[in-house]
Amino acid sequence: MPEGAKMKTIIVGAGQNGVQVFNILKHDATIDVIGFLDDTPEKAGTTFCGRPVLGPIRLAAELFRAGRIAGAIVAIGNNTARGRFTRNLQEIGLTIVKAVHPHTCIDSTATLAVGVIVEMGVMIHPEAKIGTGVFLGGSSVVAHHCAVGDFSLIGGGVIFGGDVKVGDHATLGVGTVLQPHIRIGRNVTTGIGSAVIKDLPDNAVAVGVPAKIIRMATTT
Q1: Averaged over 50-76, what is the pLDDT?
Q2: Res 173: pLDDT
Q3: Euclidean distance between CA atoms 119 and 28, whole angstroms
């Protein structure tokens, strides 16, 4: 890409999360969002956030081969779908971009993988690691030495204590609080406002203060 040129980028998902991602990327001087892809048939040919919905997600390969796009990001809340589509776009050869709101506070020693979505007000402390395709909701706080696994969804206002590890495909409900040094397994879900004071195994669904496991979810 020529120096100073903007990367032609597509957003996958013309829904509420797509709105969020578009309004983050409009602040990025290196990105030009040319439109959206969405598998909802009635959305094709419409306008969303002032950009065209060009068609279904499978159209990405054609757009890439035609040189119309070079980058993409998946703005879908479902962790499994976000992971699947992100990997498909990578296989096509597209660059998976990040959507990081300018009004965040991210320490220089923190690392963010591709495809992350970081909403307004998020704070990421020293030595934290955010995996591929992670969605960090507004005003969440990821403390020092924490790690968030690939394609996890962290709700708004979630607070991490230091050295918390969260597995892939986890969903932490809005306002969840995690005690320092907690280990959260893969595909774990916590309810809104939960206080997690003990480790949670893979596939656990936990709610309450303190959080208690109410069932085990289907493996993804």
Answers
A1: 97
A2: 98
A3: 13
Structural domains present in the chain: 7-97 (3.40.50.20), 100-214 (2.160.10.10)
> Model confidence at 4, in pLDDT bands (50, 70, 90)?
low
What's the full length of the chain, in residues? 220
DSSP H helices, 13-78, are 16-25, 59-65
Token reading at 163:
């050295």
How many other CB atoms are found less than 10 A from the CB of residue 20? 22
Dist. CA 220–CA 169, nearest whole Å: 8
Tokens of residue 86, six digits? 């992100």
CA distance 66 to 55: 15
Is residue 173 within 8 A of residue 192, CB to CB? The reply is: yes
Q: Quickly tell me which residue has 């829904």 as its tokens.
A: 15
